[in-house]
Amino acid sequence: MESLYLRTFVEVVKTGSISKAAETLGVSQPAVSRRIKFIEDHYSYPLLDRSGQILLPTKPGKFVLEKALKLLDIERELVSGLKSMRENKSVSFICTPTFGVVHLPTIMREFMMEFNNLADLSFMSDNPAKIVEAMRDGMYDLAVVEHCDSFDSIDFSDLTTISLPGDDVIFASSPTLEIPAGNIDPEVLFAQNIFVRKEGCCSRTLLEGNMRSIGRDLSNFKSFVVLDDLHMTFQLTREGSGVSFLSRELVQDQLESGLIIEHRIDGFSHSRNRTMIIHGDNQQQINIPLNFFIDIIRTRFGLPEA
Fold this sequence. Notes:
Arc Repressor Mutant, subunit A; 10-stranded mixed sheet; two-stranded antiparallel sheet; 44% helix
């Protein structure tokens, strides 16, 4: 029995009228009458009592109505589930700029090899605080953040978090500045210009916290220049225009080739944590592309697939 006939029968019983059911269903009265006749012939029982002004279900009609309502509920769940699977073939991702520069291109290539026809994709970057706020507002499916302080004081009851291996934040300079590599007297670095990120970015937050721990601030450098462009920061640092405080991952290749020199200050915190955040709604839905994206990140950082 097609659900169309059951739905028509339910609507007739609900309205008590062929004409009202036809109006609700957007079909003609003869069409409704034919569907009712078909279902009565199919089950070999009269399903409607036509003796009064209002159509009422007969005893067999009440039994069919009860089962029809259950079947229609199942159909709605089926359609909703399939629609959810179709609508969830999308990925909205946000991360901190460091992750976006170092890891996202490789992750994207692997993802697009598997889902090259997926149209609904969104990849953004921002600072950790704004990312957490956006995730709690449900603006993104997934996020990765580097952060310089603990998330323990933040309520993540609506989010799922997975710890990822963190990274180090170092001072970097060009060999032309002739600053000794490794641990160094901070006064040597304070004599240089320093390129820093905008307020709220993790590397700047970490640097400012370190400076406060020794009773200093950014004004103790020769000058500090705020740059929101990591590539410009790399270029100016390589040219010897000043030093920068940034993720070691960002300059790993330049460190290995000798284009950049690494510096640390005793007593400074040079490490920071990294966390993957999954919006709570995605734990209840089937989203194969998103799950694949998550597994790529887990594998990249040596974590087992979920």
